[in-house]
Amino acid sequence: MNRYFYYNVFLVSLLNLMLFVPHILLRFRYDGAVSSMGVAIVIGSSLALMFTKVMKSFPGKGLPEILAEFFPKFVIVPFLLFMAVLWLVASSIALVSYAVLINRFFNPDTSPIVVLAFLCLICIYTSSRSTLTVIFVIEIGLIINAPLLLFILIKATRSTAIDWDAIRTIANYWTKPPKLQPVSAATYVFTGYINYAIYNRLNPPNFRIRYRWLIPLTGTFILLMTFFVPIGFHGTETVDNYLYIWSVTADSMLMGYGFIERVMFFFLLLYLNLTLIYTTSGWHQAMEFVKSCLPKSSPQVDCIQTPKKNWIITSVFAVITLTYSILLNEKENFSISSYWLTFRMFIEIGSVLFLFVLAFRRKTST
Questions:
Q1: pTM (2 decimals)?
Q2: Domain limits at 233?
Q3: Is residue 122 packed enough to be buried (19+ CB in 10 Å), middle (13-18) or exposed (0-12)?
Q4: What is the pLDDT of residues 211-220, one digit of tens each?
C-alpha cells in the first residue's frame, strides 16, 4: 500500500508544472523566489512527515471518520463541506486551465467551453467510481505517464539549448528574503500527501508508510526543475513573458525520434492524462466529504454498483466548473489561483497541526 501514498505525492508534484506555480515563482525570481523555495521545502516536508504520523494513528479511517471520533456531526459537517470546496477548487482550476491550453495549442477554432464540457463528462464518470477504483486509476495513469514525463525533464537538463549562466545568475539571488506568495506556491509541490485524508480508508491496521525520505527528495527535485529549467531555455528576462511557461519550454525542445520530433504535443498529451487523473481524484475526494455530511452515511471503499448520489454530486461539480469558466476570464482565473494557493497553505498547516493534536490526545487517553 506504500505505493498508493507515493502515487498521490508524485501526481501533484508533476502536475504543478502545468498550473500557475512556475509562473508565480518566476515572477519573484529577482525578489526572493530562491529562498522561498528553501522555506517551502522545509514547510512542505515537515507537514508531509507530520501528516503521515497522524494517519498511522488512525488506520483505515479517512478524515470524516477521524473527526467523528471526537466531535458531534453538527460540528464537523461545516468543516467537511469546507474541505470539499477546497478539493473541488483545486481540481477545477486545473481542469479549466488545461481546457484553455488545449484550445490554444491544439484546436484554436473550438470553444474552450466545449472542450471543458467534454473533459467534465469524463471526470463525472471516473470520479463517481469507488475509492478503490480511483486509486487503481491513479496507479495505471502514473505507471504509463510518469516515466515518459521524467524522461522529458531529464532530457531538458541535458539539452544543449539550456543556458547555465542564466540559471547561475538567478541562483545568486538566494540572499533575497522569502515572500509569502512564492512560498505558498512552492509548497504546493509537496501537498500530494493530503489526499490521504480520504485514501487512508484503504490502509489496513498496523500500516506503516516507509521510505518517507522520498517526499522531500522528490519534491525538491521537481521544484528545482520547475523553476530553473525555463530560465535556462528562455533567459532571465524573457521567461516572464509566458503564462504557461512549461508549454513554451517543451516547444523549445526537439527529439530526434522521427514521429516524436516536437516535444510540446507529446508533453501536452501526457499532461492531459495527468490533469484528468488529478481532477478525478480531487472530485472523488470532494464527493466523499459531501457524502459524509449526509444522514446515515457510511464509508465504502469498494461497491459493486455506483450509488446514484455519486452521479448527482459529481454532476453538480461539473456544472460549478463550467459556470466558473464562463463567468471568469483567464486573467481572473490566474488571480484567483494565486490567492487560493496562499489560502490553501494556511488551511493545510492548520489542518495538519489540528489532526496532530487529535492523534496525540488519542494516544495519551489510551
A1: 0.93
A2: 2-365
A3: middle
A4: 888 888 988 9
